[in-house]
Design goal:
This protein is of the alpha/beta class and about 425 residues long. It is built from 15 helices and 16 strands. It has helices at about 15-20, 35-45, 70-75, 95-100, 130-140, 145-160, 175-185, 200-205, 255-270, 280-290, 315-320, 330-340, 350-355, 380-390, 410-415; strands at about 10-15, 25, 50-55, 80-85, 90-95, 115-120, 125-130, 165-170, 190-195, 215-220, 220-225, 275, 300-305, 320-325, 360, 370. Strand 11 (about 220-225), helix 9 (about 255-270) and strand 12 (about 275) form a beta-alpha-beta unit.
Length: about 425
């Protein structure tokens, strides 16, 4: 294989969210739920006004993998809005003020494609999943104007420390105009490819002549077909060992017909469709519509694909599909994987199988295997994905602790998956 490429592609990130996270309270180093409360309390004392927004909490890594009690958080933050994202941005922990601001109370039902955590008495415990988490987050005012622009520029500077091209896989419709303005100022540090949600795609495609350049362009559309492993909302073919009783195999966020319609929407605009699909059930739900005539544009990429059933690996090549994966997620998912799918660890990130089936490292115009980080879900540094792809475990773990070690790649191949 060739040595480390000189030009790298970040195949999956979120620019605005990365810029916003750079200014939020980072809970990633907190080893316990008590440490989370202490860190939030310190921040609240140092910053007396405004909402308290946090990211990167990792409950699965704590000795007791459960969020703090809602009453304990309320005692720390009082009547201030406090929202703490799990690192995967599919679950969050919110104080009572934030829950109330989103319109949730003890009598609220679970919203479609979402779930509200409850205590033993049936009251809300502040934990929200999927659509419920988004509703809480969206109740917090979003930065606009100069503040938003500064966040976008900060994220681009951050990402360009490693990458020459970045793909934004949930691009907000307004982001295209921001990027065009930044490029006109001569301050765009890397090329950007935008993948808006499919519902935003037609309008963005219609207006792209106003912002498309050699350095900023439309990639395709995106859908979300499931949740995440840490939240036990990734859609699985088999039940979790410790799943939610009402969702034993996670959450299928779209029906097969809805996925197929999204594919056709993208097809009509002659662009591919990217799909958030983490569980093996979600991966299959994306692949099946692609096998139906008429064929979609080439190389639609299922993103993440953290578990892939053995029967589906060859279909990536047969259907001309790109596996856009983030091996770095393995480093933070190890505890969740062992608890949630102990009987399916041999299906976690089958990278070697994908290559042996015919996926080519770094290829986006046919069956390929490309890497990204999903920043700000985890840090953008590509060294993390190379470590995960080659060792299948964190650096401080022994070889016996590796997850699905037979699927390890050599370093040259791992770097080739980032090649531009």
């Amino acid at each position: 294989m060739s040595p480390r490429p000189t030009r790298l592609r970040e195949a999956h990130c979120h620019i605005f969210q990365t810029g916003r996270a750079l200014g939020m309270l980072d809970l990633g180093a907190c080893p316990t739920r008590g440490a989370v409360l202490d860190r939030i309390a310190d921040h609240a004392r140092a910053h007396r006004a405004g909402p308290i927004l946090c990211h990167s909490a990792r409950p699965e890594a704590w000795p007791e993998p459960a969020w703090p009690a809602l009453g304990d958080l309320d005692r720390v933050v009082g009547e201030r809005v406090c929202v703490a994202w799990c690192f995967d941005y599919h679950a969050l922990f919110a104080g009572s003020a934030a829950m109330s601001g989103a319109g949730f109370d003890d009598a609220s039902p679970d919203p479609p494609n979402g779930a509200l955590g409850r205590d033993a008495g049936g009251g809300l415990n502040g934990v929200c999943y999927e659509a419920a988490a988004l509703r809480v987050w969206e109740s917090v005012p979003e930065p606009i104007g100069a503040e938003r622009t500064a966040m976008v520029r900060g994220a681009l500077d951050h990402l360009s420390a490693w990458f020459d091209e970045v793909h934004d896989l949930k691009a907000q419709p307004w982001l295209a105009g921001e990027l065009a303005a930044i490029e006109r100022d001569g301050a765009l540090p890397c090329d950007v490819v935008l993948w808006p949600l499919v519902e935003d795609l037609p309008a963005m495609a219609q207006g792209r002549s106003a912002w498309t350049t050699d350095r900023v362009r439309l990639g395709g559309g995106k859908v979300f077909t499931d949740g995440t492993l840490n939240s036990r909302t990734a859609h699985m073919l088999h039940p979790y060992a410790d799943g939610m009783p009402e969702h034993p195999r996670g959450m299928a966020m779209m029906t097969t017909d809805q996925i197929e319609q999204a594919v056709r929407t993208c097809d009509a605009l002659n662009v591919p469709m990217a799909a958030h699909a983490i569980g093996d059930g979600a991966v299959r739900s994306v692949l099946e519509p692609l096998a139906r005539p008429p064929p979609p544009p080439p190389a639609p990429p299922p993103a993440h694909a953290e578990l892939i059933d053995g029967a589906d690996v060859r279909r990536f090549v047969d259907l001309d599909v790109v596996a856009s994966v983030q091996p770095c997620h393995l480093l933070v998912d190890i505890e969740a994987l062992r608890r949630a799918v102990p009987d399916r660890l041999d299906r976690v990130l089958p990278l070697r199988e994908l290559l042996d089936a015919g996926c080519e490292p770094g290829r986006l115009d046919g069956p390929g295997l490309v890497f990204g980080s999903d920043a700000p879900i985890v840090r953008a540094d590509p060294e993390d994905s190379v470590l995960a792809a080659t060792r299948r475990a964190r650096a401080d773990m022994g070889t016996g602790e590796a997850i699905n070690a037979d699927q390890a790649l050599d370093a040259d191949t791992a770097w080739a998956c980032f090649a531009l």
